[in-house]
Amino acid sequence: MKTQTPYYDDNELLTGIRNKNTDVIRYIYQNLKPIIQRFIVKNSGDEIITEDIFQETLIVVFNKLRKEDLCLTCSFNTYFIAICKKIWYNYLRKRSYNFIDFTNDVENFNFQEKSYELNSTPEFTRLFFKHFNKMSPKSREVLILYFNNVPADVIATRLGFKNKEYAISRKYKCLKRLVTSIKSDPKLNDIAIEDEKIELF
To answer: Max CA-CA distance within the chain?
Structure first.
């Protein structure tokens, strides 16, 4: 006989986290982890980092519950996923996706008019990945390796390019296409208006 999956309402979920109830935590994991993983993988993460983000979110919620009576103004699922996304954006800020440094290698592209950093706001992070995810898988691979300071000769070997000169040329073309795409998005100006401290490439 198939065991019926338990159901917990929002208050029961919060109480379960506060009391470290393994059944409740397992329920949250089974129901929300796939949603969170899809979001993180879509935004250049992987299953391993999803586990870390999920665990960190549980700790954040647990600590909030210890300090105060948490009154949700939305569903628990919405609240939990929002925290996961915030933690993920903060994680991205600490990674080597720091686009202000692009100007060191691409001065010929004249990105100095405005320079935006990925770590400036979650809005710009979303805008960046909107355009980044539209690129071909190979172009994304090139840029991810480049953003992580992988040498051109290693990029060439890893991606099967004929030499490092071709890898450098491909990197420039991919980067220019990405920046052009982001600059053409009207939402970029809205972000700049909201936060005058943001600078673009």
So the answer is: 68
Q: Domains in the chain, please, with CATH?
A: 10-94 (1.10.1740), 99-194 (no CATH)
Task: Name the pTM for this structure.
Answer: 0.49
The dihedrals phi and psi of 134, each to the nearest 5 degrees, come to -85, -15
Mean pLDDT along residues 91-114 = 41
In a 13 Å sphere around the CA of 126, the CA atoms on its Cβ side amount to: 8
More confident call, 4 vs 85: 85
13 burial via Cβ count (<10 Å: 0-12, 13-18, 19+): buried
User: What CA–CA distances, in Å, run from 109 to 67, 71, 127, 144, 170?
Assistant: 51, 50, 20, 20, 14
Q: What are the helix and strand counts (H, E) for the chain?
A: 9, 0
Contact 58, 25 (CB under 8 A): yes
pLDDT attached to residue 1:
44
